[in-house]
Amino acid sequence: MSVLKSGTLSQERIVFLFAIVLFAAYAVLLDGFLAPNNLVAILRSVSVLGILAVGMGVVVIGRGIDLSMVAVMAMATAWQLAMMNAGTSPLIATSIVLAGVVAVGIINGLLIAYAEVPPVFATLATASFVFGLVRSRFIVQDAIPVPPSASFILEFGQARLAHMPIEVVMFAVAAFLSFLTLRFTKFGRYVYYMGDNFEAARTMGIPVRPMVIGQYVVSALIAWLAGLITAAGLQSINTRVVNSTLLYDVILVVVIGGIGLSGGKGGMRNVVIGALLIGIMLNGMTILDLPNIYQNLIKATILLVALIVDSRLNPRDEQVGQQGDI
Amino acid sequence: MTIKTTLALAAALCLATLPAFAQETGDPGPAYVQQSLAGKKVVLIPLALGFDLAQGWNHYIGTEVRGFGGVWETRDPNWDTAAGAQAITDLISSADKPAAILVHTPDLTSYSRLFKRAQDAGIFVIQVDNRSNFASDAFVGSNWETLGELEAKAAVAACGEGSSKKIGLIQGDQVNSSSLDQYAGIAKVLKDHPDFEIVGAPDSNWDVTTARNVATTLLQQHPEVCSIIDFWDNTAAGTAAAIRDAGLTDKVKLVTTGGGEELDCKALEDGTFHAVVMTDVKGQSRDISALLKFLLQSGLKPGQAKSWIYTLETATTKADLKPGTCWSLKDVQAAEAALAK
Question: What CATH fold (topology level) applies to the domain A8-313?
Answer without folding.
Answer: ABC transporter involved in vitamin B12 uptake, BtuC (1.10.3470)
